[in-house]
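chain below, 530 aa
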Amino acid sequence: MKRSGRHIGQLILGSLLLGVGSAQAQGTPDPNGSVTFVTTADPTFNPWSPNAFVESNLLNELLFPGLTRWDKNLKPAPDLATSWRVSNDGLKWTFNLRKGVKWSDGQPFTADDVAFTFNDIVLKKELGANQGATWRNSVTRVNVVNPLTVEFVLSRPWASLPTYLAYYAGILPKHKFAGVTDPWKYTEFNKQNPVGAGPFKIAQVVSGATIKLVRNDNYWAGKPKLQSVTFKVIPDTNAQLAQLLSGDVDLIAVGNPELVDRIKANPNLAIDVATANIYYFVALNQNDPRFQDVRVRQALLYAIDRPAMIKSVLRGYGQVATGPIAPIQKTYYNPNVMKYPYDPAKAKALLAQAGWKPGPDGILQKDGKPLVIQMPTASYQQLVPITLLIQQYWKNIGVKAEIKTMDWNSYIQQVIAKRDYEASAAWWSTPADPDVLPYYDSSAANTGNNIPNYKNPKLDQLLENGRKAKGELARKQIYNEAQAMMARELPYLYLWYPQSITAYNKRLQGMRGITQAADFQYANEWFVTK
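prediction:
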């Protein structure tokens, strides 16, 4: 997923690695060039809206820059802020803002906009902003020091704050929200005519069909090389592929690896395959007493043949996951943790130790109650086949999973917002930083990004220590220990780290080859050749 919730999409659905044009940028840019991308549904033009998920995230990157963005090494780099510093106690971060920035309507960007975005939108619990729990967890308030300086006042240290400020944390224009009582019902802004400070601005919205953006000549980094970017609303992945092959679309994320050979056969198209900071998982709702027993969680993971699933569902484009910190984070990834090779016999033994015995129909039972798990899923990319395979693996050890398939928005509301589920397969796409506190901290259970509602004070303390640690070595030691604990305890049942497959028209040039989210932060550099 995309960020906190948007991560699943936000869920969860995620960041893809691209190499488009990064090494082969060549040819003469067309000053009137345009490109066409896809989105799965009508977007919401507000990065903090509770209704903005995977269909909105990348488009919002073109409209609403943050204080920071990522460089090629996925480290925070200047964007609307030019520099920053932290106090000795780690409880105050000061950001110096860029001079001369204007909103797309010509109004000046100032510290008041930053303070408004966080104090009046993100930090207001009653509004339920997307990712809001992540920020409320540490940020108390944002103070205006002067028109070009802000202070983030924290309740506890947050060493990765500049990294999170680069992750779908766009700034909103205070002047456009004057008199607005409910920012999520501000339809004129959120669905029709937003004002941003990014390289592009909205020119036309045709609901259910297209969103056209044109370059924002007020953009601080200079006039973008593309004249326009159009997003087509195409929910069906087969239809997306058809339009890519016909030349009507310039770039898609390939959710089905079976399509790769067909794309490679087209001389106008290219494929990029790369890893990203994404991990797929099965969440077990630990408000359910059955899943509070670690032996049950471990058994359910031992029962899943993950290498076989990677081979069949991903066609080999992935590797078995050991935790939330992916191998792309070379400094912090710890491979020396507890592993769960496919072992149905061990799964049955663990369940027996936990008191689950075969019933007359072959389904395990305890205290007269069968081990039946309600498992909702969404008709999105590979989630349904993943869920069906897990259902079969669990059936083989006497566990019955009852599957309900729904559309993506309904899934988000039921599973993520209401926590009305017992088990569900999804994924997180997160900042490339070992700080995973928003997804595991006990305070994020039930309402935040901790969707399994897992609570462990010892893990909480480790992740807090990681936020306080100064220096790479100290952070590495802490997060190695945290990964070992998570591998034993399994807050989530970790499935795999997928490789992201992106197909694009070779005429598209200028992307930096970082991650999809990061590449969209440098959209002013994109161009198409004449």
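The radius of gyration is 23 Å. Residues 278-500 form a domain with the Dipeptide-binding Protein; domain 3 fold (CATH 3.10.105.10).
thats it, cya
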